[in-house]
Amino acid sequence: MCLVSTSNGTRRRPGRFPRARRTTPRRTRYHHGDLRDALLKAAVELVEELGPDGFTLREAARKVGVTHTAPYRHFADRDALLVAVAEEGFQGLHAAALARLAGLTEPRQRLQALGIAYVEYAVAHPSHFRVMHGGVADACSDPAFVQAKAATFGLLIEIVGACEAAGLIPAGSVPRYALSAWATVHGLADLLMSGAAHRMGLADGSVEAIAREVTANVISGLRTP
Amino acid sequence: MCLVSTSNGTRRRPGRFPRARRTTPRRTRYHHGDLRDALLKAAVELVEELGPDGFTLREAARKVGVTHTAPYRHFADRDALLVAVAEEGFQGLHAAALARLAGLTEPRQRLQALGIAYVEYAVAHPSHFRVMHGGVADACSDPAFVQAKAATFGLLIEIVGACEAAGLIPAGSVPRYALSAWATVHGLADLLMSGAAHRMGLADGSVEAIAREVTANVISGLRTP
DNA sequence: CCTACCGATCGGTAGG
DNA sequence: CCTACCGATCGGTAGG
């Protein structure tokens, strides 16, 4: 039988593992916003170790060195903390995309740059990425979250729209191509994050190089203008 | 705040929800293999409702109508049941792919058919698909599981290899194109399963039609022979 | 931000 | 396949 329960840390459930004792020294006091930030950071680390479902408020508190009820001063409940992570994630992804797009005007180059930014962000911030696309974010209507998400998605539509305007894709096919482009980088991100691509011997080179190659294949499917 | 804890069923943690009482009448007795199959089926349903991490052995037992220790007669532990689901999944995907490939000889058609089968299988069997790519399966060395997984992956390599032989892709680029093709359908599967594609207005039409369009975009990036 | 507590699970073992 | 149990969590509330 596969000894997954001990060889990976994806899950954490009552009564299966002894809980690690406090590793971080307890701070004497937290200033305004200090504990909030510390909890956010702890949450990101825990999601990376245990997955979004394995994350618990109590362990985040433990990690930061406060009582398990202290987080309720800053977050209404467990999901609120995860939503904050997701929001931070969309803002970070948006910023990373803008940085990669800076100075590029040619639609195909921009589409590729957006894709590379997407994959790079996911691999560099797997916890954020997973929470962004997890169940917590799905039903969320938090304004800041929704705004950050829409802005990022807007970049994709804008760039594919520019491809259409340039005659690189058939008129009216923006949704189809947007979905194709998104699916490709989204899947690549997942296959790289999970290690599946590597296990199958398909992930040689840097993340950027891999993303560049894979997105190039998508680009090459466009018309010549 | 986002009321995710009540609006979606992705998670299940101690003390958050009242547990539903037995809905299935308790069987008087199970024949050999009968309970095993019933537990497998229950596990699939539970993963669909709660995700792989939310699945518990106790709830599966409850759903089937036996004591929470009865499953240990058929599965060594919780992970063993999930591995069985993953194995069933890879066998199902492999069979679905073979069915779609039957009669097709042209490499591009075969690549597209494989991709469509992948996406259709994922959408039709989301629980299996999630478990197949989840943490439980990663570290698993169960022979039947490994074999079913390798057979499915082998189809991809074989078909992309045929594309190479036909001059549709540059010599030596099988890994790169295999990764591209896989990433695209893997990402599409995820975006369709999670509802993200639909929420963004990018998922009009049947799953087959969407998968056909998206894979067509990949195919169009190949050389003309 | 803390102490004390509650109700509800869970995975797993002992022993039949 | 069942009864009885154990140890370990968890999210959350009361009340300060």
Question: What fold name stands as the CATH topology of the largest domain in chain A?
Answer: Tetracycline Repressor, domain 2
Q: Could you estimate the helical fraction of the residues of chain A in percent?
A: 55-70%
Instruction: State the CATH architecture of the largest domain in chain A.
Output: Orthogonal Bundle
* Strand/helix succession of chain A: HHHHHHHHHHH
Main β-sheet of chain A, in a few words? none
The coarse overall form of chain A would be elongated
State the fourth-level CATH superfamily of the largest domain in chain A.
Answer: Tetracycline Repressor, domain 2
Largest interface, chains and sizes: A-B, 65 and 65 residues
The top level CATH class name of the largest domain in chain A: Mainly Alpha
Domains counted in the coordinates of chain A: how many?
Answer: 2
Terminal-residue CA separation of chain A = 56 Å
**Structural class from helices and strands of chain A?**
mainly alpha
Mean pLDDT of chain A: 87
Rg of chain A, alpha carbons: 20 Å
Beta fraction of the residues of chain A?
Answer: under 5%
Regarding quaternary structure, how should these chains be classified? homodimer
Low-confidence stretches of chain A: 1-25
Question: Notable features of this structure?
Answer:
homodimer; 225 residues; mainly alpha; Tetracycline Repressor, domain 2; 11 helices; 63% helix; 0% strand; disordered N terminus; DNA-binding
